[in-house]
Design brief:
Layout lengths: L1 H10 L5 H11 L7 H8 L4 E4 L5 H8 L4 E4 L14 E5 L14 H5 L1 H4 L1 H13 L3 E3 L6 H13 L7 E6 L9 H18 L4 E6 L3 H15 L2 E7 L8 H17 L3 E4 L6 H14 L9 E3 L12 H13 L4 E6 L1 E4 L2 E4 L1 H12 L3 E4 L5 H16 L8 H7 L7 H18 L1
Parallel strand pairs: 1-3, 2-3, 4-5, 5-6, 7-8, 7-10, 8-9, 10-13
Antiparallel strand pairs: 11-12
Amino acid sequence: MVHLAQYHCNVNQSNRGKINQLLINEFSQSASLTENHRILSRLPIETFWTTNYDRMIESALSDAGKVPDVKYNNKQLAFTVPKRDAVVYKMHGDIEHPSEAILTKDDYESYHVRMQPFITALSGDLVSKTFLFIGFSFTDPNLDYILSRVRVAYSRDQRPHYCLLKNLEKDPGEADADFEYRQRKQELFIQDLLRFGIKSVMVDEYSEITDILSQLEVKIKAKSIFISGAASQYAPYEKIEAERFVYDLSKEIISHELKVVSGFGLGIGSAVISGALESIYMSGHKLDDDQLLLRPFPQSQVGSTDLKTLWRRYREDMISYAGIAIFIFGNKSVNEEIVLSNGMEEEFEIALSQGTLIIPVGSTGYMAQELWKKLKSKIESGEYLLPGGLEKKLLELGDTGKDLSDIKSLILEVILKYNKGA
């Protein structure tokens, strides 16, 4: 394509108007986002580098509720989009500005002069960040130039990077010798990538890339624990020991370098915060969203959106950050009568629909006990499948009269085992 574009410009005395129009025609056609785009946009990735002209990455980030900061020319590097969630560097330009796109041999040859700030930025990221290359052929001369410079400067201290590559398949009617030649060529290519600190992860089918990204998302989300609970009554436990249980649980979750997500439930939220904060501050860290994410619920309707509808969306967003959800107690006082917490039941259903690991602590009674019964039924029917050994541990959490310190240890055992195997 690069050579054809250059030939066209040679014939037309460097006039690339037709090529610019062709880019607009081809890339302006609506294309559907793939599951890979959606997963990548949900992952906590702060930097994307692409040689594509399209706007798929930006669209996926926007759909995920994130703010992308797109850079496709030198001047944009000097400015920052407010409250951005991720930076998208488009090395070869943007479809909305085809005349600036890197397309011909002339463009590639002058890239190191025209786009030096991009080269500097990418070189810095290759030194300080770990890259995952997806759908990249490594035939781009600009990247080869940058990788070579980084390798020379950091030959023994290169940061590890990874790329996903598909194993070759024998074409119909292809001679054995020709296929063997292509295989050896790929093997040499994989070995050459190691010079740049890039390790190849091989797949047999492109669909496996989606599976790998999905597993990566599960593993990352498993480090965030959502604690759902509300309590006006704590029976059969005393209030002070129940609050201490929640406090210790939250504190130990943080101490294992995991993240706590909570909606500040009545009678539970304060203990969650206290335990988390003590663990954070005692370890010498500063409070940030990587350790504790709190989402207090609005209590009165001000705008036009119904409060229940707003709460539903709020819960969906909050739970989407977590890979594990713990449910404890679950009651509230209505007209001086203790009733089960229907909001906790809704959070259970949301977490279940999002593929979250559910840990209802039935031993604490109330709605948590009802949710434990639901989970028990799903486990026994085969509707809810868990990694080996976790079913028994979860079912133990329904034992009434169980000591709270034993419950805490059991919950932590399930969380850590799930994280180890996720």
